[in-house]
Amino acid sequence: MNHDHKIKSGWSFTGNNGDFRLEQPDRSSFLYFPLVNEGGMMSSVSPKLHGQVTSGHNTFLTPPLSVEDLHNSRASRNFWVYIAGQGAWSATGDSARQNAAVYGEAADESLLEAGLLWHKVTRENKELGLNAQITSFVPCGNDKVELMKVVLTNSGTKELTLTPTAAIPLYARSADDLRDHRHVTSLLNRIYTSAYGVEVQPALSFDERGHRVNHTSYGVFGAAEGGAQPVGFFPVQEEFIGEGGSLDWPEAVVRNLAPEIGEGGGRVKEGYEALGGLRFAEITLAPGQSHSYVVVLAIENDRIGVPVLMAKYGSTAAFDALLEENKTFWAEKVNTVEFHTGDHSADEWMKWVTLQPVLRRLYGNSFLPYHDYGRGGRGWRDLWQDCLALLIMEPADVRSLLLNNYAGVRIDGSNATIIGQQPGEFIADRNNIPRVWMDHGAWPFLTTMLYLDQSGDLDFLLQEQTYFRDSFMSRCKERDTSWEPAAGSSLRTAAGEVYTGTILEHILLQNLVPFFNVGEHNNILLEGADWNDGLDMAAQRGESVTFTAFYASNLLDLSRLLITLKERTGGDTLELAEEMTLLLDSLGESVDYESITAKHALLDRFYATAPNKVSGVRAQLKLEQVAEDLARKAEWIFAHLRRNEWVDSGHGDGWFNGYYNNDGERVEGEFAGGTRMTLTGQVFPLLGHAAAPEQIASIVSAVERNLFDDKIGYRLNSNFGGIQQNLGRAFGFAFGHKENGAMFSHMTVMYGNALYKRGFVKEGRKVLDSLYSLSADFEVSRMYPGIPEYINEQGRGMYTYLTGSASWMLLTMVTEVFGVKGKLGDLLLQPKLVKEQFDAEARASIKTIFAGRELKVVYTATGSAEYGEYQIHAVKLNGAEVTLQRVSEGVLISRSLLSALPEGQVHLLEVELA
Ligand code: G1P
């Protein structure tokens, strides 16, 4: 991606692996970097080695924190050096003295270097002549371990005598105990010292699970260069910091006190806040000389086998080897997709975006400093969004994931919202919070359609799956008092058998029920909220017009899919739970779609016929008739929306109203107090078929006028003023923040995607480029490479790393910008690259997986490189000319041609544009 204005990036990329460097990283607040593995270790690290280390909500090694604590807390992974004659200095920069010097002359110089997924800070104090380099990573594999290597170098001219001490607080318990009995739970601590460090195994765990015997252990261990053990230990925090001291000015270091527990450890302390306090032997460094230390942070299910752990991780040789292994591991993961355009930095930036969906899979929406909520689980919406990226990055696993996910659908078209650890495991809500997010039913088909296009696997639709059942029915409006948890959470037939239906049946149900579940303006009810979790105060009368558009587009696409199914399989009929035929009203007694009461009556009849159970009898329906019914519903909605929900701005353009509030009032339009407009309201009509082609330019113009802000990009909404108690908590947020008028990446990327889809490439490009430019403008965004959840009023990138927008960005780059996408299994090439995306040789390329093969698609513009002026002229596969099969969108390459290629190598598709 190119950009017109020069980006004064604080960081810059240093190679081709996503590696970057940033000077004085500690002069920017709120920065943190993720370190994680598939074994469940989840860390974050700031430039001063703050952050947290945990393997879950109940097992924090360090104190759980929120982003403010990164600079305000004194607890960190500290590594102290007592310099004879000079006093205490922190190699992580975290001493009271260094913190006080931050704006002055005597401040340390620091440099951050980082890559996939490692973090290195070099800090030097010129006056002292001391340099410290600290590298951190979480080794890939199944161990819950984080490693740190500290190299101290005499960078001055005089000999230095140093006494190093690692000091990492061991919180060792559940996040719940931070506020609830923090002190009492410290009394549970059993703190062991041994040859290499300190280990804590609390006797009991006090958290929401009750008071139970605890087995989990937490430890900090270390060794000096050559394997030398620490010479003493400070296992108790209060003894280390001293009376009146603190973690950033600890008496034991400042006064260079000898540890009470000497070499070899062996002593046990009980009932205090613990510290991984490791004293290393005094050393003398001549100018230019270095000495290194490895520190291991570990969480284990039971007591830690320290000798084994240290043999594996506790040496510089092991550290260096594992670091290389780790770099390779992450590079391979990310490099399944690679972009090459005329802007190298933008391509490198995309590597970090590509990593983000993986991070979201590993952290959920919790455990990074901004994500100071939740317990690590993922929501229903995220489950489906994450699959979008997986379809690009790890396509082999997606089929079974999708199949499993459908087991969460209830017979009323809603779904389970508590998602278990295992794929396909959904848990009944025992907290009794009856809530339906009305958008939930719309996403699965979008993701499934992408899967069908990428794979051509239409059989998937006919695969059977169970349904979810708990005590909620009729979209949480009624309770099934007969249901007991012991009865299990699978839907059963009248005869008590577990009922299964096809995936197609699940999808139809999810999209048909909402059609009837309308509010007083005949749009689908907002219920608990839609995509915008913050629109949660209009459950009675609120309507989501924008998701009405989404559901309608699904109905039309489903209708077309049924026709394809008929053509491809030769099948003529479709089997559905007999109760569902009610929802296909035109097959029997047609309902007047203008009549809200008639729609409600039908829905009530359906709920009564399938009250948390089904008969088990299936009806055979003609595919064609079902398809007609769906199309009829879709067309009705499109006409309804275009007629009733179009806002004429009076400025020569217009847009779609997105919502009705809980007082039944239209939310968007020109009001006395100003313009009220949402981006969400535009995205779903554009993404599907609801916005008529002639409306698109008008919407684009209204968005530019009302929502685009040079400083922060495309806002989620204009300033409504007031707190909108009849709409949702989002409007309680200050304007320009999060779900109230910030640039919310997820919606912005979807807007960009929609514009590309509708052929508004220049406009779409501007949208995607704004995301890159804003995120990469470090002076303002103050974030590392990647896409943030949102950009706030000041332009700062917020909630970095964990956001569904990354999946959408990746998807949009591959399938829209580069136009490499499936069409029911065949490969469609439909590039929408603009001139500045081609390099100096007029080339742009992408490496991606399709049909189980790694493909490198290289576009070369032999004539104009401007979108709209070129066409695919010729295609060569591994050097051999491919006979072009032109379709309206571009060029099709048949799947059979690709799947005949050998696996395990990259195949070259050279595409000439002229
Ligand atoms: C987050 C949630 C997403 C929700 C959105 C708007 O966005 O994860 O499910 O739709 O807020 O409320 P994300 O951080 O994924 O971009």
Automatic annotation (TrEMBL):
GO molecular function terms listed in the Swiss-Prot or TrEMBL record: carbohydrate binding; glycosyltransferase activity
Domain (Glycosyl hydrolase 94 supersandwich): residue spans on this chain: 121-314
Residue span, Glycosyl hydrolase 94 catalytic domain: 500-819
Gene3D superfamilies: 1.50.10.10, Glycoside hydrolase, family 65, N-terminal domain (2.70.98.40)
One Pfam family of this chain: Glyco_hydro_94
Annotated GO biological process: carbohydrate metabolic process
UniProt keyword list: Glycosyltransferase, Transferase
Source species, domain of life: Bacteria
Database matches in InterPro entries: 6-hairpin_glycosidase_sf, 6hp_glycosidase-like_sf, Gal_mutarotase_sf_dom, GH65_N, GH94_catalytic, GH94_Enzymes, Glyco_hydrolase_94_b-supersand
Name the UniProt record assigns to this protein: Cellobiose phosphorylase
